[in-house]
């Protein structure tokens, strides 16, 4: 039981860090491209999310769902109260959901990465704007699901501790 | 609503809001600020004027203050509601961490960011502001992370008694 509590605490910390980073991207960073211009924003994303970001955000985005799914199996096996099973299970489903949404958002952003061969590098402002617009929509959904995962995770922690 | 329920609600609020603040702060430290080192402080100043001094001027202070109120509130109320003493240490650490993070943000980082508000701040003041923000942000992100972890620990202790 102590192991499960530790696992849920670790998942809560991972999900909180991820939700905060993701909300910042949706609320503050992506809208700033309308004022600084898509070219400048493109340079910024290549120097941030596609540089150091991949060593921080990708591990968080993978570790969170792994911890959540592991916790849901554990809770199920222990046969805890219905509230605990429901909350931990919901957090796990949401975590898998944001992992899938990350795959979708990442596939849109892939066209903008610095690792594209020179002939596929996108320089046209209109095309950049279109890709960022599409990414922004998926990112908004992903950030919402990541926030919900975090909130469901806190509920799960409370339900299991009671 | 009983006092115990208020304390627990504040502890939950501190975890949720504090987690978001910590996530944003650590992301800025590890991902965003290093990017501005490569792109140059003038680009950082331009982005900051449009982001932090735009919507961010309202969203982040509100979010940070709400997290601070929840952390300090839970730490104070735990004394009066007969919460188990084992919850005092994490809740007090979280309360102190949240207060220190507030002071770092309000008195060391915000004044530097606000110098960018003019139409054309000179390059040397931008350079100085960027160096100061980068340096103090390490402390801010560390304090928010410690506060968040202590709030999770505190909530677990509160709920287990």
Explain what this protein looks like in three dimensions.
- The complex is a heterodimer of chains A (162) and B (161).
- Chain A has helices at 2-36, 38-78, 82-109, 125-161.
- Chain A has 162 residues and is mainly α.
- In chain A, helix 1 (2-36) packs antiparallel against helix 2.
- Chain A is elongated.
- With 161 residues, chain B is mainly alpha-helical.
- Chain B has one domain.
- Chain B contains five helices and no strands.
- In chain B, helix 1 (3-39) packs antiparallel against helix 5 (123-159) and helix 2 (41-50) crosses helix 5.
- The chains are: A mainly alpha (162), B mainly alpha (161).
- At the A-B interface, helix 1, helix 2 and helix 4 of A face helix 1, helix 2 and helix 5 of B.
The tally of beta strands of chain A, per DSSP, is 0
Q: How far is the N terminus from the C terminus of chain A?
A: 12 Å
Class by SSE composition of chain A: mainly alpha
Largest interface: A-B, 40 and 41 residues
What is the count of DSSP helices of chain B, taking H or I runs of 4+ residues?
5
Low-confidence stretches of chain B: none
The ordered string of helix (H) and strand (E) elements of chain B is: HHHHH
How many DSSP E strands of chain B?
A: 0
Report the structural category of chain B: mainly alpha
Overall mean confidence score, pLDDT of chain A: 94
**Main β sheet profile of chain A:** none
Question: How many domains of chain B?
Answer: 1
Element-by-element helix/strand order of chain A:
HHHH
Helical content band of chain A: over 70%
The tally of structural domains of chain A comes to 1
